[in-house]
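new request in #modeling-help
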Amino acid sequence: LSLEERLASYVVEGTKEGLYADLDEALQKYPPLDIINGPLMKGMEEVGRLFNNNELIVAEVLQSAEVMKASVAHLEPHMEKADSAVKGKIMLATVKGDVHDIGKNLVEIILSNNGYKIVNLGIKVPPEQLIDAYRREKPDAIGLSGLLVKSAQQMIITAQDLKTAGIDVPILVGGAALTRKFTKTRIAPEYDGAVLYAKDAMDGLDIANKLSD
Ligand code: B1M
């Protein structure tokens, strides 16, 4: 197998045997984010496909997620860091009912490496918790992540609850079940502030930078 194929296969197989040596080799050729967005994400897509076809069980997908997390942690120190002043404070959460956090945590790494102070509220965060944390932390923006189809619906509810609580800072939304169109036609109308869709973590950074300019 080529290096790229091996990297994808660690994720698919859920094994770390040889992973770190191959990640170090890949770092000689590619920037860390390209390794994540390329071979590692390709592995995750395959995991998603196999899971969908009932060829993998949740326990196996958890091992794949573990490999993805370990890889991101290994690559993180090699990522470019802007030593700029703090550009703003962003609160991140995976919405109520959803446990997927690899994408959200990647967003945290990218934003915090680029001058943002991040308050990461974790997973399955109900609107009430988000509102309490908003009042405590006073962030400049709120980032919501969700991968399940029902999480897209949950984002509508969350936006409504935030609005009712009088909150109108920009909301950044991302995750596999969302689209730009859904964000614009279904979530944004329920909220007083801006609701912006990010297709990936880098897009999230671009949007945050535009907001803070
Ligand atoms: Co789950 N899962 N999962 N899963 N899982 C999906 C999402 C699924 C598509 C798999 C499938 O069936 N093909 C499917 C969803 C179906 C649907 O609703 N459409 C699914 C399902 C069904 C489930 C369960 C219901 C399974 C079950 O129990 N029967 C269950 C849900 C439990 C719950 O949430 N209540 C479940 C559980 C799990 C595990 C716990 C085993 C594990 C998660 C572990 C973890 O996160 N700690 C898991 C995994 C790993 C996946 C897949 C395979 C991979 C997700 C991932 O981490 N990708 C996934 C299939 C897939 O996506 N191919 C799947 C890598 C990550 C970097 O990408 O999170 O998309 P992603 O983030 C991207 C962008 O979306 C974006 O940036 C990132 C890239 O830069 N982004 C943002 C994300 N959030 C953002 C926020 C932003 C900006 C950008 O700003 C705030």
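bot summary: The radius of gyration is 18 Å.
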